[in-house]
Structures are given as C-alpha cells and as structure tokens.
C-alpha cells in the first residue's frame, strides 16, 4: 500500500461501499439491518451511528497499533469499541431522544458487530491512520447506504409515506398512496423479506455486470 | 407463591415465543444464518447458547445491581457486560477443555463465536433495562435461549430440505434463507397477544 496517492484512498472508500458491502455482500451485522429499518429516519440514524463508531475505532486502533501488545489485542479492541459505542449512545440520548428510544438497544449492540472488530483486526491494526480512516469511512458509508435502501423501501411500501431527518427535527415528506399500504413490510417478517429480495437484486445486478464484462 | 411462579412461566413463554429474539427482535442473525445449514451444528449451538446465556444473565445481574447501581455508574453497562461475557467464554473454554475434552471437541468452536454475538449481550442489557429480579433475569435468559434454540432447529430442518429445491439463481443461498425466515417470522406473529405481561 503506497502512502502517497489519493486514488488509493478513494479505492479504499469504494471497496467498503461496493465490493465488500457489509450487509449485502458479507452478510455481517445483520441484526440492525432489519430491526431498525421500518422507518427511513431510524435507518439513517442507525447508519450514521455505525459510520461514526467505525471511523473512530479505526482511527484509535491505527494510532495505538504500535503500543498494543499482540497477545492482548482482542480485549483492547473490544474496550476501544465499547468506549466509542458508549460515547455514541450518550450523544444520541442527548440530541435525538425520540430516535434513541426506539433504536437504543441496537446502538448498544454495535459493540458486538463482527464487521467493526474485523476491520480493526484486519486493517486498522496494520495500517497508518489515513488509510484506516478511509477504510472506516467506506465501510460505514456502505452500511449507511444499505440501511437507507432497506428502510426506504420498507417505509414506502409499508406505511405509504416517508419521513426524513432534517437537522434534528423530522419532517413528513409525502404520501405515496392513500389506500391501505402493505402492512407486512413494516412488520418483522417484512424486514426479512425485504433484505432477502434486495440481496437477490444485488446478486442479479452483479451477475449481469460480470457477464457484460466477460463478453467484451 | 403460585402467582410468582406463573409470572416466571409467563416470562419464559414470552421470551421464547412472543418476543423471540430471532424473529421479533432480530438478534443473533449472523449466527442464525451461519450455523443453521446442518441440524447437528444447530443443536450444538443451541445447547451452548442457552447455557452461556443463563450464566451470563446471573453474573451480570449480580455485578449490575451490587456494583454498578450503588456506585451510580450504570452508563458503563456495555463495557462491563461485554467484559463479563468475554471472560466467561474464556473461562468456560478452559474448563471444558480440561474437564471434558469430548464435549470441547464438539462445542468448542461455538464458544469462540459467542463473545462477538449480540444475542448474548442483549440478555443482560434487556434485563437491566427492565429491572428484572435475580430469578426473573435467570428465567429471561432461559426463555431467550430456548427461543433461539427453537428458531435454529426450525431453520436447520427447512434449510436441509432447501438444498434440494430449485431456487432462481440470484436467490441462491442467503437471499432465499432470508425469505424463508420472513415466512417463519410471519407465522410467529401469530403468537403475539398470547400473554399480556
């Protein structure tokens, strides 16, 4: 990994969003992808929380990588992660209490995200802080993207409306249909269905893309 | 006394069926999709999980109520609980290897997976949030474990059959597993309202 070029950093960011998308490709950290995605607002806030924790953890680990003894690295990583998660939790409880009331448990459970520990172990503990930050940013944005997509479809189909966060308040955007919406999409069962179908869509697009590239 | 007992029973039923961790709270999904391919591993995982859940519920309750609450540092609960679980996993790993190598050979691999699993961490977090008594949080741990076991075993038996089914190419593997889980979750919504706590 050369330390110089900007393209490298860009590639690192893109890698997390497309090639190794945590949810659609690696199928890790799935719990919140279904739990909080029955409204767009919650999905976005959850995604932002994960983005924040991922970047900060990568940064901290890469700065500390020369002091951490390899034998105790895992407990140290867990400590760093749970520290940043607690920070996120307190921040959210203070600034967006209505969201926190709904997604609080899942914010706490970011600690147990395999993806965050995996990036700390595989990337941040071996690279300097700039690439580590890019890596964290890519992974986090990929996660945010996945949560936003899932919650967009679920709220649109399940409630027939959308809410987006504007600043700290939330706003009702528009009503899609005035008849009875598909209630199942906001129920737990709908979450599994939506993720399954979106994953299949991702696979299908990838397969088409690969076939096109091969024929050229 | 008897009403106390009914309450505990209700707690177990509600934790395992109505608020099933997998189908209504969406926790432990990584493990759920990871190990539900074969019945044998699913059963092994369920046993290990239920045991670890009950033990960690007990230890966490003691530490939360006897240390964190008196010192007024409950905001440290995440760090403390994850520490307890990681330590517990390490200890049971060592004990199992010494005492029963046969069992360790079978279940050891699952133990390592447990420390990064949200469902185990959720049990102490929820029981701290709901202010359960000691016995109640034990019952909650047991119920959650049984619910997880039920979900894993249902899923494993469906997925063994699914191997032979014709599935459209983009849906192969995980996407299909998600759709199947969605359908099971739909069935589980039938349990809601069974007991009102």
Automatic annotation (TrEMBL), chain A:
The keyword NAD does not apply. Keywords: Membrane, Translocase, Transmembrane, Transmembrane helix, Transport. Signal peptide: none annotated. It is found in: Endomembrane system. It is a multi-pass membrane protein. GO terms for cellular component: endomembrane system; plasma membrane. It holds the Pfam family Rnf-Nqr. The chain crosses the membrane at residues 44-64, 76-97, 103-120, 132-153, 182-205. The keyword Transcription does not apply. NCBIfam families: PRK12405.1. PANTHER family: ELECTRON TRANSPORT COMPLEX PROTEIN RNFE, ION-TRANSLOCATING OXIDOREDUCTASE COMPLEX SUBUNIT E. This is Electron transport complex protein RnfE. It comes from Candidatus Sulfobium mesophilum.
TrEMBL record, chain B:
The keyword Ligase does not apply. It is a multi-pass membrane protein. The chain crosses the membrane at residues 12-35, 47-67, 73-91, 103-126, 132-155, 176-195. It is an enzyme of class 7 (translocase). It holds the Pfam family Rnf-Nqr. Keywords: Cell membrane, Electron transport, Membrane, Translocase, Transmembrane, Transmembrane helix, Transport. It is found in: Cell membrane; Endomembrane system. Belongs to the NqrDE/RnfAE family. This is Ion-translocating oxidoreductase complex subunit A. It comes from Candidatus Sulfobium mesophilum. The gene is rnfA.
